Amino acid sequence: MLLWRQAQGDKQIIVTCPGVDVPGHMIYEKTARIMMISYIEAHLNEKLDLDTVANAVCYSKYHLHRMFTDTVGITLHDYIQRRQLTEAAKLLVFSKKPIIEIALIAGYESQQAFTSIFKSMYKQTPLEYRQNEVFYPLQLEFTLNKNPTVPDTIMQEISYATLADIPDWMNFIKLVIDGFPCLDESSHLEQVRQYVGQRQALIMRDGSTIIGAAAFSHQTGSIDFLAVHPQYRHYGVAKAFLDFMMCNIFVGREISITTFREGDKADTGQREDYKRLGFAESELLTEFGYPTQRLILPPKQEKGDDER
C-alpha cells in the first residue's frame, strides 16, 4: 500500500506498507494523519495547500480535509498558516533576514499581504514584533496519540496533578499552545509547580497521554488554565473538568476564565467552546499586552432552587 510519495530533487521517496492483509482503509487513515503532519513540517518553507498535501499522501483532498479537521479541530489550511507564521515569527526575532525575505519564506507573495495576516494573528506588525524581541508560537507541531482510546470508552477520571506529572504537562503544553497567546514556557513551569504544590492543578489521561489539564485559584474563583488535547476536543473533556470543579471546588460560586475577544482571528475555537459550556461575556481585559475578555459561569443551580 502506498503511504507517502515525496519528491526530493530528481528522486522520489515512496513509503509503502507491504503485505497488509488487514482492512486497508483503517491502517491508511491512521497512518495518513501522521504522515500529512510530517509532510507539512518538512515543507514549511514551501507553498503548501490542500491539493499539495493530498497529492503527497495520495488521498482525496475532500476526505483529507474532513479527516484532519475531525482529528485536531482546525482546518488543514489554518494549521499550515499558523505553523508558517510561527516559523516566520521565530525568524523575525532570531535572524536578521529582511522582512520581505521572511514573507516569501512563509509563502506570501508580498510583504503587505504578510504584514496584514501577521498583525491579525500577533496583534503587532512584523517590524514591531522584531523590535520587541520576544518570540511566542501561534502553533507548534501536533504530536498525535497513535493509539487513542475509542471515545466512548475513555475513563474520564480526573486527578490532582503531582510533581511527577509536570514533565508530561509541559509536553502537553506544546500541543495546546494555540489557546494561550504570549505563553512563556519557563514562567508557566514555575506557575504549574505552585499550582501542584497547592493542589490546584488537575489532569486527565488516556493511558499515559495527558488529554486534559486545568489549573485554578480557590481565592479568586478563576480557572487560570484549561486545555484539551487536540484529538479529544470533541469528547466532552472540558465539560468533565468543569463539572468536577463545580461539584468539588467551586460549590455555589461563580467561575471566571479569560479567553480571546470576539472576532480574534487567532482564536481556534476556545471562545465558542466556553460559551457553549455556559460562560457569559464579562469585561474586556489586556493580559501580557494581548487583548482578552473575561467570561463568567454562574453557580450551579441545585435541584429545587427554582421552587424556593
Structure summary:
This protein is α+β, with helices and mostly antiparallel strands.
Task: Describe this structure as you would to a colleague.
It contains eleven helices and nine strands. With 308 residues, the chain is of the alpha+beta class. It folds into three domains: 2-73, no CATH class; 77-132, Orthogonal Bundle (Arc Repressor Mutant, subunit A), CATH 1.10.10; 151-307, Gcn5-related N-acetyltransferase (GNAT) (Aminopeptidase, 3-Layer(aba) Sandwich). The strands form three sheets. Strands 3-4-5-6 form a four-stranded antiparallel β-sheet. Strands 7-9-8 form a three-stranded antiparallel β-sheet, with helices on one face. Helix 5 (99-105) packs across helix 6 (111-122).
Give the strand tally.
9
Q: From the alpha carbons, calculate the radius of gyration and give it in angstroms.
A: 21 Å
Which secondary-structure class do the elements indicate?
alpha+beta
The biggest sheet, with number of strands, parallel, antiparallel or mixed sense and barrel status, is:
4 strands, antiparallel
Can you tell me the overall shape? globular
CATH topology of the largest domain: Aminopeptidase
In terms of per-residue confidence, which ranges show pLDDT below 50 for 5 or more consecutive residues? 1-27
Could you spell the SSE succession in H and E letters? EEHHHHHHHEHHEEEHEHEE
Number of domains: 3
Percent range of helical residues: 40-55%
**Total count of helical runs of at least 4 residues:** 11
In the CATH hierarchy, what is the architecture of the largest domain at level 2?
Answer: 3-Layer(aba) Sandwich
**What percent strand?**
15-25%
- The CATH class of the largest domain turns out to be Alpha Beta
Arithmetic mean of pLDDT = 86
- CATH homologous superfamily of the largest domain? Gcn5-related N-acetyltransferase (GNAT)
